[in-house]
Design a protein that fits this description.
By secondary structure, this protein is α+β, with helices and mostly antiparallel strands. The chain has 1 helix and 3 strands. Strands 2-1-3 form a 3-stranded antiparallel beta sheet, with no helix packed on it. β1 and β2 form a beta hairpin. The longest helix has about 40 residues.
Length: about 100
């Protein structure tokens, strides 16, 4: 249900009421009983929840499969590179230890 804002013509208090859209507007002030007018509200804020609000949400299936393949191949290269660098460091440290003796 929407929230409507009213202002009293006499005592100038501003108040809000939750009313259905089909309900009749309030005519009397709850404080003094004078006439009230309904104010124009700013409306509700927009909430962006869920999927569908990002450009990447609408990518094609072929794009997503290609992206997954790229990730997998990159991960395979990274693990291969890490093992090569760690094994080369081990051999370097062994040769340095041998040279010190």
């Amino acid at each position: 249900m929407p929230t409507y804002e009213y202002e009293c013509q006499s005592c100038e208090i501003v108040f809000e009421r939750f009313q259905s859209m089909s309900a009749a507007p309030i005519r009397k002030c709850p404080e003094c009983g004078a006439k009230v007018k309904r104010l124009i509200g700013a409306g509700a804020g927009i909430l962006f929840k869920g999927s569908g609000f990002y450009q990447t949400d609408y990518r094609s299936a072929s794009y997503k499969t290609d992206a997954n393949k790229d990730k997998q191949s990159k991960a395979a290269k990274d693990t291969g590179t890490k093992s090569e660098t760690s094994s080369s460091k081990k051999s370097e440290s062994k040769s340095a230890a041998t040279a010190e003796k």
